[in-house]
């Protein structure tokens, strides 16, 4: 038999999940997406080659996936990180 605290926790978890779904539906642009190099380059209007260069020098936040030491790992960039980096670049100017 489920205790009172467990029942309350289950109800709260259900309500929080439902609220998250409603918020996500209302603000789809605010959901953090993960971009590949092509999408990131297109998003900020620079070349893919420059994105690769910025990743190589760790100037832009990114995640690498693949075999260690691979010449062409898969690179992913969070949209929120990309926008934060852009804001930093604008602030420097």
Please give the structural blueprint.
Elements: H1 4-26, E1 34-36, H2 37-44, H3 48-56, E2 63-65, E3 74-78, H4 79-92
Antiparallel strand pairs: 1-3, 2-3
Helix pairs in contact: 2-3
Share in β-strands: 5-15%
**Termini separation:** 63 Å
Tally of DSSP helical segments: 4
Q: Uncertain runs with pLDDT below 50, 5 residues or more?
A: none
Shape: elongated
Instruction: Return the structural class.
Output: mainly alpha
Helix content percent band: 55-70%
Let me know the number of strands.
Answer: 3
The gyration radius over C-alpha positions equals: 20 Å
What series of H and E elements makes up the topology? HEHHEEH
The description of the largest β-sheet is:
3 strands, antiparallel
- Average pLDDT figure: 87
Q: Strand sequence of the main sheet, in spatial order?
A: 1-3-2
Summarize the structure.
It contains 4 helices and 3 strands, in the order H-E-H-H-E-E-H. By secondary structure, the chain is mainly α. The chain starts with a helix and ends with a helix.
